[in-house]
C-alpha cells in the first residue's frame, strides 16, 4: 500500500482540468498530488480545490465522493487552502446558478450571474472568456499576490462571480463590461481566485509559488 502523499493535495471531484493545476505546481517546484482520498487530503500540508462547470453539479459530486466534511475539516484545521474558479465559488454560502444551491459556506456570501445586458441596454457577452486586469483592494505584501503588479492580466472563464458578505476579505477586483466584481479573496487560511493562475502564464505560476512560500513552507 502506497504512503499517503504529503505537501499539497489537489482535490479531485471530477469537475476540473486538474492536470493544468498540477503542471503549474510542478513548474513552480511544488510537490502536489491529485487525489480524492479523504485520508490523503487530511494528511496534506495544504490543499487546492480547482473547478470548472456548474455549481450544483460540483456540489453533488463532492457529496457523492463524501468530500464535503473532509474539506470543511481541512479548512477548520487552519492549514492553507486554495480555491480556483469554481473552487472559489463553492466556498461561499450559496449560488443562484439554476436556482439557489447551497455551497460549503466557508466564506459567507453569494454567487451571482453576470447580467446579460448593462444598465444602458448594451448586450454583455456571458461567459467572460479571456484576459482581464486584477486591481488590488488590500495590502498584498503578505499574500500570494505579493509578486504580482497591480493591474496585471489574468485568464478568466466564468459566467458567475462571488459577492462576499464581508468586503474586507476581497483581495482583488476586476471590471467586466462595467461590472466591478471580486476576483480573489484572502480569508483567514483561505486564498481563492476567480481567474485561473495555471492559465495565466508566468504571473500565474508565481502565484502558486508565492502561496506555497507564504502559507505552506
Query: Which value, in Å, is the CA radius of gyration?
Result: 16 Å
User: How would you classify the helix and strand content by structural class?
Assistant: alpha/beta
Query: How would a crystallographer describe the biggest sheet?
Result: 8 strands, mixed
Globally, the shape reads globular
The oligomeric status of these chains comes to single chain
How many β-strands, per DSSP? 14
What amount of the residues lies in strands? 25-35%
List keywords for this structure.
217 residues; alpha/beta; 4-stranded mixed β-sheet; 6 helices; 14 strands; 25% helix; 31% strand; globular
Provide an overview of this structure.
- Helices cover 25% and strands 31% of the residues.
- The protein has 217 residues and is α/β, with parallel strands linked by helices.
- The two termini are 27 Å apart.
- It has six helices and 14 strands.
Write the layout of secondary structure elements.
Layout: E1 8-11, H1 18-27, E2 32-35, H2 38-43, E3 46-49, H3 55-64, H4 68-76, E4 81-84, H5 86-89, E5 92-95, E6 101-102, E7 107-113, E8 128-133, E9 135-136, E10 153-158, E11 160-164, E12 170-176, E13 179-187, E14 190-193, H6 201-216
Brief summary of the model shown:
This protein is α/β, with parallel strands linked by helices and 217 residues long. It contains six helices and 14 strands.
Amino acid at each position: 500500500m502506497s504512503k499517503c502523499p504529503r505537501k499539497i493535495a489537489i482535490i479531485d471531484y471530477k469537475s476540473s482540468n486538474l492536470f493544468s493545476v498540477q503542471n503549474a505546481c510542478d513548474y513552480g517546484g511544488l510537490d502536489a498530488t491529485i487525489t480524492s482520498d479523504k485520508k490523503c487530503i487530511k494528511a496534506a500540508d495544504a490543499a487546492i480545490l480547482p473547478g470548472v462547470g456548474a455549481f450544483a453539479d460540483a456540489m453533488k459530486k463532492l457529496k457523492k465522493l463524501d468530500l464535503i466534511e473532509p474539506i470543511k475539516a481541512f479548512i477548520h484545521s487552519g492549514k492553507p487552502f486554495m480555491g480556483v474558479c469554481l473552487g472559489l465559488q463553492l466556498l461561499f454560502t450559496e449560488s443562484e446558478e439554476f436556482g439557489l444551491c447551497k455551497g460549503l459556506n466557508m466564506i459567507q456570501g453569494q454567487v451571482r450571474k453576470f447580467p446579460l445586458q448593462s444598465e444602458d441596454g448594451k448586450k454583455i457577452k456571458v461567459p467572460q472568456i479571456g484576459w482581464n486586469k486584477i486591481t488590488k483592494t488590500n495590502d498584498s505584501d503578505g499574500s500570494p499576490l505579493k509578486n504580482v503588479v497591480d493591474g496585471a492580466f489574468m485568464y478568466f472563464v466564468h459566467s458567475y462571480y462571488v459577492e462576499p458578505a464581508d468586503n474586507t476579505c476581497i483581495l482583488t477586483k476586476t471590471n467586466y463590461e462595467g461590472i466591478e466584481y471580486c476576483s480573489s479573496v484572502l480569508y483567514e487560511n483561505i486564498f481563492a481566485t476567480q481567474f485561473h493562475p495555471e492559465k495565466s502564464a508566468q504571473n500565474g505560476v508565481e502565484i502558486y509559488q508565492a502561496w506555497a512560500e507564504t502559507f505552506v513552507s
